[in-house]
Amino acid sequence: MRTADDGSVVISPHGAGDPVRAGELRHALVHLLRRVRPLRVIVDLSDVPDLDPFDVGSVAAACDLGDDHQVPVFVRSPSGAMTDRLTAAGIPRQRVSPSPHRP
Question: By its UniProt entry, which Pfam families does this protein fall under (predicted)?
Answer without folding.
Answer: STAS
